[in-house]
Structures are given as structure tokens and as C-alpha cells.
Amino acid sequence: MGNFQEATALTRGPGADVFTVDLDPQWTVGGRMHGGYLLAAMARAATEVGPHAHPHAVSASFAVPPQAGPAQVSVEVLRAGNGLTQSRVRLDQDGTPCAEALLTLGPLADDEPYWSGVTPADLPPEHECVRVPAEAPGAGFRVDLMDVVEQRLDPRPLGFLGGTPSRRGEISGWQRLADGSDWDPLSLLVALDPVPPVSYDLGIPGWAPTLQFSAYLRRPPAPGPVRVRMRAGVVAGDRMDEIAEAWDSKDRLVAQATQLAGVRLPA
Amino acid sequence: MGNFQEATALTRGPGADVFTVDLDPQWTVGGRMHGGYLLAAMARAATEVGPHAHPHAVSASFAVPPQAGPAQVSVEVLRAGNGLTQSRVRLDQDGTPCAEALLTLGPLADDEPYWSGVTPADLPPEHECVRVPAEAPGAGFRVDLMDVVEQRLDPRPLGFLGGTPSRRGEISGWQRLADGSDWDPLSLLVALDPVPPVSYDLGIPGWAPTLQFSAYLRRPPAPGPVRVRMRAGVVAGDRMDEIAEAWDSKDRLVAQATQLAGVRLPA
């Protein structure tokens, strides 16, 4: 159960460039399908239509949360050729549009960076970090995702667990797929949308539903865990932007994401 | 000529939720329509369908560059209600899909931030910055956009003009609309996609076409100029990510953007 490949497996039809995915209840947070998991299934559909196996960029809107169970994933290619493919993917359930994504796909080079302005996440070794259980104390709901993604958080900014958030606006952790498989450019979309939301570290309780999400996949990840740092940008007017970055076990930046999420600010 | 409202004016039809825009050759860079300008016209169409006047988030794929002249802009609402609208907008020209965008729209609050982790752009006063002419020396092509957007760049990192880029990966400047109108959440989409690309400051010549672009509009901007800072993230494998942030004349962050662009690295 909870195998990533099986959980994002697609069957063809009904129709051309349409697929069916059986959304797996293991990949949920408080009963809601995890956004990164949905995107991974949608991106897989895009790789099935056209010659390119790897997404470079994925931008998505989350409209209506789907339930576990069958959903339709439809792909339209906007532009093919010139070494890349650009597609739109839509996830519908029972005729309701749940999410749409725009993708740029191509061959994913493993070149060393020409230049980087990004500082790697500073994180204690994996064994010194704190495993997040599916039944997190005080969460008030079950995070089934934590049974399929083994996440160990940097304990230093976890004061929010005891009611004293650090207010640095940053939560970092190690992540592995619990099925023992290595990360790939599709499953990294799961890693880039970690729980809990970084708003917990800012003293903002409650869920932070993703409105829009954009990810860039930069290199194929090396085997082993990834470490993901999530930082808040600006929290204002019931909106928060968050930036996530993922480094692989060889300490290379492999993926980046940003999202705009809804928050309910304390009165 | 070059008035932003006129250049993004829409006429209804042909069909429901379809508009025609007459793409204005003033809003071009080297003969190509500017991406932020295209997005502004697309976002305007989204505001015409549904009750919400302001985009909160805009994510777009640029597939095929359109030419100046008529183009069709089609809106599909994915979800309406709950204080926000989520839509997809497509720009077609002569039956070819040129760009698609996913938008979240709603009322744009003017609340002070609850928390911010973003450092304001450090920029000399506007009169000490350098106006970018449409006929930039050595550019090799005409940037008509610079006749409709008055941009004054921080002179400190402009060594690339003389062949000695600073390699800090950052270019900042003041921007005003040359028609004298104030910035609004739609025209800010133009400001968030400044020229030249920040790759110039990294010693990478040539154009950097945007593949995907995402913007968040955070507050209605105050009257007066905005200052925009653009920073490179990682440049690797012919891809560069860039982050742009815009502050208004009251020194408030009003908009943010990220893009993945193509670059051709020096051999």
C-alpha cells in the first residue's frame, strides 16, 4: 500500500489523451488529497502524451478537492517540438474540474550549475531530526501522507508544537518515500509540498490550502533522501506565499517550488 | 500611443467568454510581444468573466509568440464562489495556441502584512538611476517596450554594458508607465517581467525566453513609480529561474513573480 508508482498509475481512456487515475486515500492530509500527489499524477499523464519524460516546470490551480477514487486526467498539447513540449492537464472527478496544470516538459539535463544564488538548507543529520507521525499530537486530524512519505523535521524550529513558534517562517526536513523507492522528477512534486504548512512556525493555526503552485524540476535526483526547506515570503490579507527547495543526497538543488496559500490569521 | 488601458482593451466575441485584443506593437522586445503585457491582457479577460476584479495569482505557459494584431482571448471559469474565482485563459492567434494562464481572482485587500520575510530592494533614488532607451547601445535590437515603460536601472550592477558583468545575479530598477497612469494589479504584470534578463548580469548574452511565469499580486499599489528587483536563482542546463519583487512608492511589497526561462550558456 502507498507505493508511489501504483498510486499514480494511469489507465488509458475514456478518449484520446485521457487517462483514469485511482486516487489513493493514503496520499491525504486530514482526509484531503495531497496537492503534490495530485500534481504528480497529472504530470505523469503529460509525460504519456508526447516524447518528453520529464517536467521542467509545472504550474497548477487547485479548484475543488477531489475525493479518493477514480478521476479523469485529460492532456492537451499546446506546443510540441524544439526540444520541449508544453501541455495543459486537467483533473476532473464526476464532471467537476478539480485542478488544472500547465507544464513544460523536456529532457532533464544533469549539468552542474553555471551559477547559483541559492544557499543549501542547513539541517541536522537525518537521524537527529524528528519523524512526523500520521497521528501528530495536537493536529486534530490524521495525516495519512506521513505513512507513505517518511519526513524527519529539523527539531530547532519546532517550538510551535509546544505553542511557542520560532516566527522565523522556515520549516525544513528530510524526506524519503516509505516504499523504499528513490525520488524522481515526478515524486519530487510531493516532496515540494510538505506538511505542516510553514504558517505553523508563524503562530498561525489551521490549514493553509494551496490556491496556486508552481514547481521547477532542475536535475534528476540522486538516490537517497532529499532535504526540503520551506520558507514563508509575505503573509498578508489571508494569503501567504511559500518557497520550497529540495536538495538531493549529493547536496545538489534538484527542485524548487512556490505556492500561494490561503491562511486564516489570528484575530 | 502605448496607453496601457487601450493596449489591453478587449472587445467581446466571437462567442461567450471570448474576447478579441488588438496586440499593440509598442509592447514588444526585439519585435516579440512582451510576456507581461500578454498576461495583463489575459488577466483583464479573466476579470471580465466573474465578479472579481483583481488577480491574486497568475501562472502562465508561453508556447508560441504571437504577432502584433488581433488575437482571441478565451476564459473558462473552473470554480466560482467562496470569495474567489479560479479561471483558465487562453490566447490564440489564427487558431494557434500562443499562451495559457491559470488565475485565482478575488478582492485584493490592502492589509499591512502580518509577517514578512522579504527584504526591500536597495536602490538609489530614481533620478540617480539610468533610463533604459528603446535603442539600447549594443543590444542589437529595438526594445519598443522602453518607450511605454520608463525604466531606470540601478547603475551599480550595469557593468555588463561594458562587458564586465557583476555576476551578482541581480538587476533592479524603477518603473513608471510612460502614459502617466498609475500602476494597478494588471499593469504590474508588465513590471514583473523586466528587461534586460538578469542573465546579462551573469555574463550570459542573448535573449532568455520565458517558458513559464507565475505572479502573485499582494496589494493594490500606491500611486507613483514601483521599484522592481530581479534576482537569478540557479542557472543550469540551459534553464534559469528568476525571482522578481515589486515595491510601491510607499515601500510596500505589492507583487512577486518567478519564471523559468531558457538561456544559451557561453561555450
UniProtKB/TrEMBL annotation, chains A, B:
PANTHER family: CHROMOSOME 23, WHOLE GENOME SHOTGUN SEQUENCE (PTHR38110), THIOESTERASE DOMAIN-CONTAINING PROTEIN (PTHR38110:SF1)
Residues spanning the signal sequence: none
Organism for this UniProt entry: Prauserella flavalba
Pfam families for this protein: 4HBT_3, 4HBT_3C
Classification lineage: Bacteria, Bacillati, Actinomycetota, Actinomycetes, Pseudonocardiales
Location of the Acyl-CoA thioesterase-like C-terminal domain: 132-262
UniProt name for this protein: Acyl-CoA thioesterase
UniProt domain Acyl-CoA thioesterase-like N-terminal HotDog: residue ranges: 24-105
